[in-house]
């Protein structure tokens, strides 16, 4: 069934949608031949269902899904079009939808109690925003996301360029993992303290587009645009394409200088995306395994590239690889206001802070950070497992941790003083990743979610041009719900 349906709206949600329309001022919408805006009406329904995650003869797994599918239906629109999406809540609890990586007006961002009241069971809310950037995005709840996402509520959102890359196929892989029992049911231990304090909820079954993958059919000489989306609660992927050498052409939906991934592995933390150009150079009737190598000693084969008997062409095509830039304001690093952000907590957190503070103490240039870390150690208290600048979020987060002056350039110098990696996501904006541990990044990539290694310092730069109160958090969802979350105000 098509998701492009006339939405059914209550009067209350119609008024909410009108308010959102008035706020949609990032860019003009794409217009049709007669000058009228091109508007796409869509409908999504979140509800319990069942899905065949595992191959036969295993049973179907009880899940929560959009439009009875895991992942939810792929929303595919053109850059500049306006989306009106009616979301009906068929669950027995409240929900919302966040359009991850899309620069929406604040009222359409889908964060409960911060940008909107949550959608009650049986109610419908209409989201309305313009697709200002082309690229690979996705949608998911922000209400109890550690369980709602973990039970299957997510889907891809693809915004096509005016002139897309020339390829033979444009393919989306939504990657996820699941913690399943012998009965194929999802384990109900969401929000467990061990997961919160360590790496998050890592599953024991990995799927591509909601299925355990066996083979992916390709042809020699074929060029594929492969859009990867990591929808897992906590799993980090590091994909090795064997003898193939994919080129990264976009990260988190934003074009980047085409390049081979560092170490030959495409690394994606939760919520991160990468667009690859994959030239299929294998022999006819051969097979090549794509292997996930992120967790040492726990490597596994994700899927086989299975070559058919008939080649498409003898050699890869000589087609352009550069994507057109999106309309992002370029930050002025020299004139930027600088802000320090310190992530602490978790298992072994105090040990890492003490170690890093001692190291900085021996380096005169790091004395300020050493004092800050010592101070943070003294502030850690209460139930918070993870902290940002010494504070652990509890309940609805309303008071901003930082205020960024609207229209100005800002640099966030972020230090991960923990023993665990964290994919850090800022709502409402994309930012340039400008340095890691003091070294300039080779591509100054635009991202909305940046993966920080333990003990790493990362600098990001942005123009704060989207007003409102925006979520800022770790996208390992168990870390978010146990404190690693805050609000950044743009005003």
Provide the fold topology.
Blueprint: H1 11-23, E1 39-51, E2 61-66, E3 75-78, E4 82-89, E5 98-100, E6 124-130, E7 135-140, H2 145-148, E8 155-160, E9 169-178, H3 193-197, E10 205-208, E11 215-218, E12 223-230, E13 237-240, E14 247-251, E15 254-259, E16 265-268, E17 273-279, E18 287-292, E19 300-307, E20 337-345, H4 349-361, H5 367-379, E21 386-388, E22 402-404, E23 409-416, E24 422-426, E25 431-436, E26 439-440, E27 446-447, E28 449-452, E29 457-463, E30 468-474, H6 477-481, E31 485-490
Parallel strand pairs: 1-4, 3-8, 9-12, 11-19, 20-23, 22-31
Antiparallel strand pairs: 1-2, 4-6, 5-7, 7-8, 9-10, 12-17, 13-16, 13-18, 14-15, 14-17, 18-19, 20-21, 23-29, 24-28, 24-30, 25-26, 25-27, 25-29, 30-31
Walk me through what this model shows.
With 491 residues, this protein is mostly beta strands. The chain has three domains: 11-160, Cupredoxins -  blue copper proteins (Immunoglobulin-like); 169-307, Cupredoxins -  blue copper proteins (Immunoglobulin-like); 337-490, Immunoglobulin-like (Sandwich), CATH 2.60.40. It is 11% helix and 37% strand. It is built from six helices and 31 strands. The protein has helices at 11-23, 145-148, 193-197, 349-361, 367-379, 477-481; strands at residues 39-51, 61-66, 75-78, 82-89, 98-100, 124-130, 135-140, 155-160, 169-178, 205-208, 215-218, 223-230, 237-240, 247-251, 254-259, 265-268, 273-279, 287-292, 300-307, 337-345, 386-388, 402-404, 409-416, 422-426, 431-436, 439-440, 446-447, 449-452, 457-463, 468-474, 485-490. Strands 20, 21, 23, 25, 26, 27 and 29 form a seven-stranded mixed beta sheet that branches. The protein has a six-stranded mixed beta sheet with strand order 10-9-12-17-14-15, with no helix packed on it. A five-stranded mixed beta sheet has the order 11-19-18-13-16, with no helix packed on it. A hairpin with a 2-residue loop joins strand 14 and strand 15 (254-259). It is globular, with a radius of gyration of 22 Å.
